[in-house]
Design a protein that fits this description.
3-stranded mixed β-sheet; 3 strands; 18 helices; 483 residues
Length: 483
């Protein structure tokens, strides 16, 4: 009797980020169940899914133009992909709150492999229509995946762990690029001229992408997740109406923080298109494969570092936000200046330059864009998702916010890849546009940074008549949902 009373008191004393807690009758669960239902396990699985899907996509894209000889067809397909995602990410975030994150995540694993297969067919047989079809399937799948994976990575852990867990999620995604690019480099190491990668590369990467579907079935629904402090997350799908979710999305769009984040969401991926053109235009096949590998290493380093730094307890969250953002601004402006100098040099060289790792001046050309810019791009990615997680604590709002973020990010990518698909637009023009987009986002993002709170809101009342407690319940460990 005394033991039961002590156990109940211990559960009631457990710390929780939410003020709205529901206490359930304690029920013993096995150590395996606690691990299987833990935020860490689920974020690792989401990271592995991301490794097999966008991770492999990134591995191909970071060779320059998906490994093709010319960038225009692949940039056109990428523009089509992101064009679908402009609307698809928000749409699937609505569906996730209605039908569940796990179901939407499963859909997100079905469209990447057809796109990679289309690159293989184009590389080997010259078929072009299949690449555009693959862009469509990839756009639909990526909309579902992007809307669900970010919500799981941000919503399942407690606020104090969101920096580390975001780093784990994005770091595992880069594992796809590391493995995929290692394979590419081993298969193309003797190709010291410009051209396209060997078609054997695609077969291995397609096989890896097929592993995403079975992994998705291992994800726990939010209401079954058990946090380390014994808390659980309420079921976000209960009593949900799609029309009501549309109203909440519109209300979120009108909030100051989301509105001011739009420029960086649209702009921070623009230099990715330029990188693809730059690699294709000036680097040998094996140098491009090396670029894919080293950029993966740089991005992984960024995820590890910022996952640690953003959760430091020695600074307040507002101070960490300011230190991080203004460091980014100084470094990015410096790197843009460096790259503009590089681009001017190589586009003016006659005869046309082909940079390989055994040619003079390779380090200057390679390091500024492939290593430093990729490190900073991933750092921005980490930072934006961390910022989102500092404002809200409930998974429904986080899911909708991630959908909005992904939609505007996709809009920027669609326009930038569309610009990159136009052969009449010079690489320098692409670089200048990327620079201007970054400059535009500096003042708006700075305003958001100064709004970062020390603690997030448990449940934000977005629509008139909405209960502040609706959907914000956090259940203490031990109810029947864990079984």
């Amino acid at each position: 009797m005394g033991t039961d009373q002590s156990h109940k008191q211990a559960i009631e004393a457990a710390s929780d980020e939410s003020d709205h807690e529901v206490y359930a009758t304690p029920k013993k669960v096995s150590r395996f169940t606690r691990w299987y239902r833990s935020p860490l396990f689920n974020v690792i699985i989401v990271g592995l899914i991301s490794f097999t899907q966008p991770g492999i996509w990134n591995a191909l894209n970071n060779t320059g133009a998906g490994g093709q000889q010319e960038p225009y067809l692949v940039n056109g397909a990428n523009s089509l992909t992101f064009g679908i995602m402009v609307f698809g990410c928000t749409f699937f975030s609505l569906l996730a709150n209605k039908f569940g994150l796990k179901n939407i995540l499963i859909i997100g694993t079905l469209g990447y492999a057809p796109y990679s297969a289309s690159l293989y067919v184009n590389n080997r047989y010259g078929v072009e229509w299949f690449v555009l079809f693959g862009g469509v399937t990839c756009g639909i799948a990526a909309s579902a995946l992007w809307a669900s994976e970010g919500a799981i990575a941000l919503g399942y852990p407690q606020v104090k762990d969101r920096g580390k867990f975001t780093g784990i999620w994005l770091g595992l995604r880069e594992l796809g690029q590391l493995i995929g690019s290692s394979i590419q480099l081993s298969l193309n190491r003797k190709k010291n001229q410009r051209g396209k990668v060997g078609y054997d590369t695609y077969l291995i990467l397609i096989g890896l992408q097929c592993a995403g579907l079975p992994l998705a079935f291992l994800i726990s629904p939010p209401e079954k997740v058990i946090r380390p402090d014994g808390t659980k997350i309420g079921d976000p799908t209960k009593n949900k109406k799609v029309l009501g979710e549309f109203k909440r999305v519109w209300a979120l769009l009108k909030t100051k923080r989301v509105f001011l984040l739009l420029p960086i969401l649209i702009g921070f991926n623009w230099n990715g298109t330029y990188l693809s053109i730059y690699l294709t235009k000036y680097f040998s096949v094996r140098a491009r494969a090396l670029g894919a590998l080293t950029t993966g290493i740089a991005a992984t380093a960024a995820n590890i570092f910022w996952g640690w730094f953003l959760d430091l307890k020695i600074f307040s969250r507002p101070k960490i936000a300011r230190i991080t953002w203004f460091s980014f601004v100084v470094i990015m402006l410096s790197i843009f200046g460096w790259q503009i100098s590089n681009q001017h040099k190589y586009q003016s060289t006659i005869p046309k330059v082909t940079l390989d790792w055994d040619t003079p001046d390779f380090g200057r050309a390679f390091a500024s864009t492939v290593l430093f810019r990729r490190f900073m791009n991933e750092s921005h990615y980490m930072f934006v998702y961390w910022i989102i997680g500092t404002f809200n604590n409930d998974i429904e709002t986080l899911t909708l916010t991630v959908g909005i973020v992904r939609s505007f990010e996709s809009f920027g990518s669609a326009v930038s890849f569309g610009l990159g698909a136009a052969s009449a637009v010079s690489p320098m023009a692409n670089l200048i546009v990327a620079f201007l987009m970054f400059v535009i986002c500096i003042p708006t993002t700075s305003l958001v940074v100064f709004e970062v709170p020390e603690h997030p809101v448990d449940k934000e009342r977005l629509v008139e008549g909405e209960s502040e407690n609706e959907g914000a319940l956090t259940v203490k460990a031990g109810d029947e949902a864990t079984s």
